Amino acid sequence: MSLALAVALLGHVSLAAAQDGAASTDSKDKTTELSRVEVTGSNIRRTDVETASPVQIVSKQDIENMGARTLLQVLDNLPAARPAQQDSRSLFTGSDGASQANLRGLGAQGTLVLLNGRRLSYYGAPAGFQTQFVNIDAIPAAAIERMEVLTDGASAVYGTDAVAGVINVITKRNYQGAEVNLTTDMSSRIDSYGEHQASITAGFGDLDEDRYNVYASVNLYRRDAIPLSDFYDKRPKQYYVNNPNYLNNLRLGTGSKPGVFNPGSYFAFDPVTGRRVQEAAPGCNNVLTTEAAGPRCIWQTWMNNEIDAGAKSERNTAYVNAHFLIGDSTEAFAEATYTDIDLRANGGTPRAYNTTTGNPTNWFSRNTGTSVNQFLYPFLGPNNEYNHASPQLRAMMGGVVGLQYLLQDAGANYFGQRNTDKSYRALGGLRGAIGDWNWETAFATAGTHSTTYQTINVNLEGFEKAFGPYTTDPGTGRVIISDHPAYKFGQISDANAALIRAAFPTFDIQSWTRLHTLDGKIEGPLFKLPAGEVRAAFGFNVSRETFYTPGNEDAANGLITQQGGSWFDGKRNTYAVFAEAVAPLTDKLELDAALRVDKYPNFSANVAPKIGLKYQVLPQLLLRGTYSEGFRAPSLAESGTGGVFAQLGGYRDEVRCDETNAIANLLRQSRRSGDVDLGNSLLNADCSRTVARMTQPNQNLKPEKAKIGTLGFVFEPLDWLSVSADYWFIYRRNEIAAPDYSKDEDILSSTRSPITESDRAAVAALAAMCADPASGVSCPGTLPGYSVGNVASVVGQYKNKGRTLIDGFDIDARSRFSLGEWGSLNIGLAATIARRNQAYLDDENGWYYGNTVGYYGNPRLRATINADWNYRQVTTSFFVNYVGTTKWAWERIDAEDNNPQTCTAGYLPVAKAQCDGVPSWWTANLSLTWRPTEKLNVGVTVKNLFDRLPFYDPNSFLGDSSDYASIFGRSYSFTVGYKF
């Protein structure tokens, strides 16, 4: 933050920072204490908020001016921050329903989040079952006074996790009266989108006059669900080019409607050619005929699916803050926070019974060791009472047929996912003064309880009750359902609904985290040097941390498909002592030194030093620099007991990908529509598979270590202009990483499925097409086929890997203009320019991937520009967020396959206009706030003012550039607040 802006804020924050000053009977001493503030990154109070470390202060007004409504949106508008998990897109991440902070792109595990200078408990469920992080959605937004963002390492002050920086959210200090604020957001493009917030804050007591103050704040937040019906046709155009069957597969206007009975289809494989042959069941009114396999009965995809587009979220937060003066020099303080989050997403279309002829569903489970569990939807036997296939079809496989049938009985809203999280923190402490020394101690207890409810997966026992007992065809090994199953095909009934709910039950995953801390510190003058007073701080911290995920018993026994009862059980005590000193070496040169020793179990005590220098060259020019060492202890998820027994999405098997696409690309050249349809469905189908995954903790992990440095200046050439610039670097080693299953060296073992009937049917369809001159395809002499089946499972373990080096520059410029009777104008520019981002893998591979700055996910430039015009009772703010261009490839090795010449990303085509890479991107917000009286304020914000729509991004999960641009197009936010 620039010097001028920091000094201007000093008067504003000094009252809020009075919590750090002791009461005194001497009014002069009291004034001196009030003028001292404690800035994030230091334990020492000072009269100058500009320290050797760069600190950005974001006020509540700044947050309103940028149009942000949540902490996540604030961070998305800070150039030093990178996109991170957001709760609306968090389904199936392992930490569903939560949002993360991510400074410098080092991930949530490298960013420390504090509330009023103290730690919060981790979210109940770690991201990807590895990364434990603070859910920033649980911080009480209505009570926020400001945010301080330290973009420098701070392990010497705060301990683990503070490698990339610290985000310290500071609440109001002293509040009297009451105020109510209401906000609603809506979109011009997505009708169902809406975010609504209401808050009330009320307090009583004046700390100076009444010797106490107590206030409470309640924040209510709701985001409306976005169903597929409001989103399916609003993806970027290239998405539909690369997924040619996407819209067709929705079967809008051709398939049977939701709730209407659909008799389904039968199929079999020709024993001579291996081709799949199918027919619609008797009574079908929605027949689709394809030349490749024959007619089938189709149904519409239910458009109430909310999994991809946007889940409904309700978040309620309550915060209480109290301060009491005891005697002349002691203050008691307490605060309590409670957050209740409920995230729900309708799963849309009911499950379909679709006899499996391709790869089975594979998964590991806790109690079945290294054996891979498998599930296939069985066939109908020749004597099954529901086998009404034609004699010709039945004759192909000895009377056995496959079945496609819509299991509608459970209803439209039964399937889906829900996530709940209840988090709390209670803190109590004392602070005071002994002579010139200030002391403070506090005890805090915090925790979360997160539960994921999924109603998607099959329960093997429940499924067999509905469709069993099974038999096995001795000749082919095909599994056959009961000839007279309990489930009654051909009808929709309550009895069937009960069976389907047992076959697809609600499966829960619960997690608990707890954090108890006791801390204390004392701060004051040590002695005087000719240039001034040397101040020091000394303190300790003791904590007890636990993390427990017991896992679901049915899942642990392998009974829940795709979920294996992943579980963790870890606990540890940690201890730390620290010291810090600030010494004015000369009138212009100040030294800041800190040292912290942390002791974690299982490895030696960690010593984290930090040293900083601040040199006032001229009244208008300040030089500053720091060097520190940071660390991150292995989380209990990474080094405790347990493991991840689940699935891995997006696994790429180059062999199967190439073989399947060779078949698909020939089929897509055919003049016969059925061949083209089959080719479209096969295209890239084996390039991103879901496979069984087992990731094991590693109790021999070493802590991550880092060397961190900054060097910069603050320059104020004119009283209306200030500029700061800082070079920064982070050199991290022993990085703790989950296995990268795209690399053979990270896979301890793997298995493959056999070549399936569907594989053989695709090869047979290709052969039939090539044998038919009417197809118009010139086929090679040797037709492509399959040499192996798909990968079914992979096993890996958390590990320490090599080193990471990132560096760059931060620039901040602020100007303030007086416009006379026209008010005042503030203009600001903030930018982060990345220089290097590279990883040293090991001594054999070295810096294998090179510098990834300029490659996907690592733009060289991020910047924001803001202009705030204050005129009488009106404030008008214009805010621009800019992200520079990158290549589509992730790094130089990936660029061999994804480059402007191939015009692909993630091996998928991109629009010709984007062959050169991800375009630079900017969006603008315009807000207007009117305060007609001291009590009333009314505001409107137009987000994405110029209605810029997302571009196609094949590297992203949903195919759109959601890290850059909102799918909502231009949106509008309306706010009204009233103070009583």
Automatic annotation (TrEMBL):
What the entry lists under Pfam families is as follows: Plug, TonB_dep_Rec_b-barrel
- Domain (TonB-dependent receptor plug) spans 50-166
Q: Does the keyword rRNA processing apply?
A: no
**Membrane topology recorded in Swiss-Prot or TrEMBL:** Multi-pass membrane protein
Q: What is its main location?
A: membrane
Where does it localize? Answer: Cell outer membrane
Domain of life of the organism encoding this protein:
Bacteria
Boundaries of each TonB-dependent receptor-like beta-barrel domain copy? 363-945
Q: Which GO terms describe its cellular component?
A: cell outer membrane
Signal peptide position in this chain?
Answer: 1-18
Per UniProt, the keywords (alphabetical) are: Cell outer membrane, Membrane, Receptor, Signal, TonB box, Transmembrane, Transmembrane beta strand, Transport
List, alphabetically, the PROSITE patterns matched.
Answer: TONB_DEPENDENT_REC_3 (PS52016)
Q: Which family does it belong to?
A: Belongs to the TonB-dependent receptor family.
What name does UniProt use for this protein?
TonB-dependent receptor
What organism is listed for this UniProt entry? Lysobacter capsici AZ78
